[in-house]
Design brief:
The strands form two sheets. Strands 1-2-3-5-7-10 form a six-stranded mixed β-sheet, sandwiched between helices. Strands 4-6-8-9 form a four-stranded mixed β-sheet. The protein has two domains: 196 residues, Alpha-Beta Complex (2-enoyl-CoA Hydratase, Chain A, domain 1); 77 residues, Orthogonal Bundle (Lyase 2-enoyl-coa Hydratase, Chain  A, domain 2). β2, α1 and β3 form a beta-alpha-beta unit. It is of the alpha/beta class. The chain has ten helices and ten strands.
Amino acid sequence: MAPPTFGTLLYAVEDGIATITLNRPERMNAFTGEMMEDLLRAFDLTDRDDAVGGVIVTGQGERAFCAGYDLADAGAFARAREDGEIPRDIAGLVCLRIFDSLKPVVGACNGAAAGIGVTLQLPMDIRLASANARYGLVFGRRGITMEGASAWFLPRIVGPSTALEWVYSGRVFPAQEALERGLIRSIHAPQDLLPAARAILREIIDNSAPVAVALHRQLIYRTMGEAHPMEAHRRESRAIFKRGLSRDAAEGVGAFLEKRPPVFPDTAPADLPDIWEGWEKPEYK
């Protein structure tokens, strides 16, 4: 089967890892409406493909991960709807889709990231940076406000004080500050960035059951805003009961007792149990 093609992305799957590369280097990988559509489709592919155990998102070249919204794109900040309703923020549509991924997502920020170039990384599980990376939540300097559901993601990652400082000022800051404030996990030489991202995913893919990984991702993201740990207890009770009866559980215990690597038979989404009755899945349209 021929690999899928996109107008604004490169997409490749190798050894269980899908690499999605923002591919508009002549515009510093700036974001457009077409890129939104491509990213939504790419994450649909990674969810459906049992050969994919994890996803890396990076940018083409060493100059930029994503320089923000391409201001040459017509209707960059506001696209009127014929029915008069307020249009949904297209950055938010992509970030919500990444949030709902069934596979772990590693962001590999290879260069400049501004505006949506930063907010696009926030729903990714683990964020790495090249020594060339720099970040800017520059919305106020363009006369607009934050997007990509970053008002939800950013303070949860770095705390409200840092989030407010960065969005108030709109200043550009280096990877070292991003590391110190908790936005990223680690900084790497440019040539080491993607190998480091792959190593993280290899540790996950080679040792953990795909369905367990998908459920852990959901449990953490969907319960961390609850007012009481009882909600996490309810969901975990449902999950551990359903997975305790699974083929994966039998294989995991058997592999441990036999001192061999596990070979988990279940896949996501095919074998993913529903532990979220009453939870409304977001729409990406």
